[in-house]
């Protein structure tokens, strides 16, 4: 299974759960993360975690220009709105395509671990993306059954960096203005 991971903290519990059933490869594709120093920090953290846990790892370090093009006109959208849906779609389509290219019959995402993200929307986009590329999307809501709290404990146990915004420049600006991300 190819598992799209947005960051190491969100990868912890999904990796552990999916490993019980699948041979997991973590895929880091997140052109939404800004600035580049933040992208690098999250990349290094997930790469380090997968290395320590002996998990296969793959990544793509591109797509930023396309991400800004897709977000054009959506800059003022509220968190959780159509900008976020467009961002999820871009990343899940890329993951479905990568799964197809790698010969992985299934893929999933860690995005549903966040209490700030709606699993129904993410799962719908994942299923749409899977259909486009002829693979299967593993639907989940990893925050259920106390998943977010359990992941938080793993993050503390592993000493992982935990960011305070989703990664996109618009979320970061909102946080700087005193909003919640």
What can you tell me about this protein's structure?
The structure is a single chain. The protein is an alpha/beta fold. The chain has one domain: HUPs (Rossmann fold, 3-Layer(aba) Sandwich), CATH 3.40.50.620. It contains seven helices and five strands. β2 (25-28), α2 (36-52) and β3 (56-59) form a beta-alpha-beta unit. α4 packs parallel to α5. The radius of gyration is 15 Å and the shape is globular.
The low-confidence parts are none
Helix content bin? 40-55%
Q: Oligomeric state of the chains?
A: single chain
Task: List the secondary-structure elements in sequence, H or E.
Answer: EHEHEHHEHEHH
**Distance, first to last CA:** 29 Å
**What class do helices, strands and sheet pairing give?**
alpha/beta
Calculate the mean pLDDT score and round it: 94
The major pleated sheet works out as: 5 strands, parallel
Characterize the overall form: globular
Q: For the largest beta sheet, what order do the strands appear in spatially?
A: 3-2-1-4-5
CATH third-level topology = Rossmann fold
Helix run count: 7
Radius of gyration: 15 Å
Supply the CATH class. Answer: Alpha Beta
In CATH terms, the superfamily is HUPs
Q: Count all strands and give the number.
A: 5
Core attributes:
7 helices; single chain; globular; Rossmann fold; alpha/beta; 181 residues; 5-stranded parallel beta sheet
Summarize the helices and strands and which ones pair or pack.
Blueprint: E1 2-4, H1 8-19, E2 25-28, H2 36-52, E3 56-59, H3 64-71, H4 82-102, E4 106-109, H5 119-133, E5 136-137, H6 147-158, H7 169-176
Parallel strand pairs: 1-2, 1-4, 2-3, 4-5
